[in-house]
Amino acid sequence: MPILNEERHLAEAVGSVLAQQYAGELEIVLALGPSTDRTQEVAEGLAARDPRVTLVANPSGRTPDGLNAALGAARHEVIVRMDGHGEMSDGYIDTAVRVLEETGAANVGGVMLAEGQTDFERAVAAAMGSVLGLGGARFHVGGQAGPSKTVFLGTFRRDWLRRVGGYDPAYARAQDWEMNWRIRQLGGTVWFTPDLTVTYRPRPDLRALARQYFRTGQWRRFLVRQHPDSVNARYLAPPTALLLVAGGAVGALAWRPLLALPVGYAVLVTAGGIAIGARHGAAVAARVPAVLATMHLSWGAGFLRGTTGA
């Protein structure tokens, strides 16, 4: 588990792992970055209370560095990737190991089950679990078990992590997708099963959400630049939407019919957002349109801006 500024959720995340009913030996390795909250104190308390919790330093605070540091300290041949703001479903590890053995896969993973605690967070969760929000990837919306391009987090055979050389430290984001790309290029199978879920806690406000998705878009662009064959329509949809909305708004100054582009987009996310959020109540439904637009347009802006890495 790579950890940075997770005071709010760390005990819950670690507790969900320690509560797993698994017949084999279990260890938890927390790679601790230089947090600015009480994360270090919380982690030290967890390690003091349970010898299965090991702490290692991650001075850079970057996720791939933390993952590789944790891999270096881990002792076992099955590696379960976990985050500090998630919660494993009951039986997660037992199921993941069983599916690894049944399928012969290099990596097995499941669903990123977004779950909010405020109306805004619930709106983000509803958007993330919809096709209109993040496309039709099974690890967001669910689906049948089978080979997949990527999965959420993942449970790996350590031998495959050795073969691909661990996580690429160039990737501050999208390191899981990039790792799974290299596994598949070497002939390994990445297997999705809906029987595995990890609860994910969404960002708490629009500013944090916009920052998250801008960075996500930047790193998807970095991934496509390094691995051109990985590009797909889902990655290109947000920048395309941004260009059409912005182009239509500016172009309408010269030719008014182009205003149909931003207006049409606004109608789509408003109607779609309200429909997506309706089953969660009016307060959530009212927030989903703004959440969808923030996710789409921030991702698109980040993708168009790109990044040189680091």
Instruction: State the major sheet.
Output: 6 strands, mixed
Q: Span between N and C termini? A: 20 Å
Give the helix/strand class: alpha/beta
What Rg, in angstroms, do the CA atoms define? 20 Å
Identify the quaternary structure here: single chain
Task: Quote the average pLDDT.
Answer: 94
Q: Ranges with pLDDT <50 over ≥5 residues?
A: none
- The number of helices is 13
Order of helices and strands: EHEHEHEEHEHHHEEHHEHHHH
Instruction: Estimate the global geometry from the Cα principal axes.
Output: globular
Query: How big a fraction of the residues is strand?
Result: 5-15%
Helix content: 40-55%
Describe the structure.
The strands form 2 sheets. Strands 4, 5, 6, 7, 8 and 9 form a 6-stranded mixed beta sheet that branches. A 3-stranded parallel beta sheet has the order 1-2-3, sandwiched between helices. The two termini are 20 Å apart. It has helices spanning 10-18, 39-49, 63-73, 92-103, 119-128, 131-134, 138-141, 158-164, 175-185, 206-226, 233-251, 260-277, 282-305; strands at residues 2-3, 28-32, 53-57, 78-80, 86-88, 107-114, 146-147, 152-157, 190-200. The protein is 52% helix and 15% strand. Helix 10 (206-226) runs parallel beside helix 13 (282-305). The chain has 310 residues and is α/β, with parallel strands linked by helices. Among the domains are: 1-86, Spore Coat Polysaccharide Biosynthesis Protein SpsA, Chain A (Alpha-Beta Complex); 211-305, no CATH class. The protein is globular and about 65 Å long.
